[in-house]
Specification:
Elements: H1 2-19, E1 24-35, H2 36-41, E2 46-57, E3 62-84, E4 87-110, E5 116-135, E6 138-160, E7 163-174, E8 183-194
Antiparallel strand pairs: 1-2, 1-8, 2-3, 3-4, 4-5, 5-6, 6-7, 7-8
Length: about 200
Amino acid sequence: MKKISLTLFLSFTVIGFAFSQDWNTMVTYNIGLPLGNTSDFIGETSFRGVMVSGDYFIEDEWSFGFTAGIQNFYEELGKNTYSERQITVTGDEFRYLTAAPFLFTGKYHFDRFNPISAHVGLGTGLYYMVQTTEFAGLFFEERNWQFGLMPDVGVGFELSPSTDFYVAAQYNYYLESKDILSQSYVAFNVGLRFKP
């Protein structure tokens, strides 16, 4: 999983820099706080997330673009015992949830050319989900694409004419699919924004 995360991060970074002549490009490290069904499955905060976003401005205040990334949740539940009819199994249980959003975004930017610039936005698109339970050496895994929404707010603090220190918060909600319940989490993002 670490190799997949690193590969995605490097790929998105290269893509982001390729677009940076006409786009604002954000590269962030993400912390994910599980909510709802996600919290029921995994209660631990995720410190394993990366994201790349791009904004193309159609006016000074309005932009459209993309967001892509990965957030990995993990929890070790320790020894558990499950019984089904006359069979009882005891073993260590681990749970994993990987969310990889691929979203189109629209944003409204406040004071875009000021040293401190904020935005509000909404993303919509698909999340690739992998939900895994490991119990007593056995793996139970569900994979699916789920439609989702991502409202977000962010602020950039100018470090240089072409670079901002960037922070954002995003609420990620994706609808139920045939194999995976609806999920949600809040992501707190810290990184850099590159401007043309």
